[in-house]
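Form 7-S
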Amino acid sequence: MNRAGFCIYVDTVCAGPVPLWRDELGNPVVYQSLADVQREMAKEAIERFQQFLDGERDFEDAATIEEYVVEVDVLPDGSIIDADGNCFGAGNW
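Output:
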């Protein structure tokens, strides 16, 4: 039985929109709620700005957020299907 979830996506030149992170099994990292995925994105943004403050990153790089949230259906095997019908599982992306 499928369940709803959320993934962080990024647009790529070759593959188009894809989930940004994989788990230890190679499946997309799925968050249970919109609030959970937004918290993760906020943590990542804070880390990028801290890297800017530490002189490790340019401001423009730290301030640019290319990631976005996509609601997905999670299949029993851990693979996902997004609203465009793209399916991502272990090893196929």
